[in-house]
Every structure is written in structure tokens, then in C-alpha cells.
Amino acid sequence: MVVFEVFVVPGADPSQILSEETRRETQAQVLTFAEAEKTGLRGLPDPEGKEVRVVLVNRRYLNWIHRSLEMSDAVSKFRVHELD
């Protein structure tokens, strides 16, 4: 499993960080920081008031999601965390 910590551009629509097709094809889960913590995901840094989304996806889709986030106008930056 791979976790992408995605920082949303101020004023951008967070639902636009990944296309519907990408989410469907990769089965990526896009969660708010609070939703991610409720699912048991711990250890992510405090977003410090910034709009953050957490994307959970199977490791085999790492490159696809990485490219999609790089191309998204709604993403200011992101970090990748690989889970064992």
C-alpha cells in the first residue's frame, strides 16, 4: 500500500486532485486527513491548517498516481509514504 499526502492549492476543489477515471481504474481512496485517521492511519504529520487529502492506493499504481498528481492543477505538492 502507498499513501500520498497531497496538499491542495488554496481555493482549488479537492475533488479534482484525481480524475474519476483514475480513481475508478486504480481503486484509489481519497480521504480527508480526519477520515484517514479514523481508518487507523497514524503517523502523518499535522497538516498545520493546510487543505490536505490522503490518497491510498495499491503499490502497483504508484507511478500512475504520481504522474496524475504531478499533472493536477489542484495539487501544490505531495509526499509519498510506502507502507509495509
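Second entry:
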Amino acid sequence: MPTPTRVFAEVAARHGGVDPANADAVLEWLEKTLPTLPGPQAEAILEELLARDGLEEERGAPRRYPDRAAVPSLDESLPEREPLLAALWWLLHRRLRRRRQPVSRG
């Protein structure tokens, strides 16, 4: 079950000051404004929408979704930081490998 349309309206109202009862304004905000928001803000909004995925739709609620929503490509996304534990483990492994390499006695 997808995220209910009422959730999109609530999010557009809270984050964009859009009238949640105006389906056209909600769709316009989702299609035109949401993709222009700074990465962290847009990501938080998308996380909120995903967290509410699967909720039941209210009876009689309009069922209009954006025809297409511009989602940033992986090339446009910010690089993910390497987990600290993985980085430290890699450094330790590299140091141990250097110690095990035979020393040439020319």
C-alpha cells in the first residue's frame, strides 16, 4: 500500500505552507518546489514520507499523485561518508600487511 495522499498534503502544508485541502497546490509543491530544496531538507521530507508508507487511506480522500517527481540521480547526491569503524579496520589491515611483507636484503 503506498503512502496515503493525505500524508503528502500534510507534509506540503507543514514544510511548504500549502493549503492541504488544495490538491493542485499540493501537487505543484511536490513537483516544483520539493526538488529545489537543499539536499538535507529534501531528504528529511522524503524520509518522513517513506516512514508513513503503508498507512491506510481515509475513505473519500482524493487519490491524486504527482505524474512525475524529480528525484536526484546518484551522480547528483552527496557522497556518503565512510563508516568510522570500517575506515579504522582498513587502516589496521593495511598496517598489518606492511609488517608481513618480506624485507629484501640486496
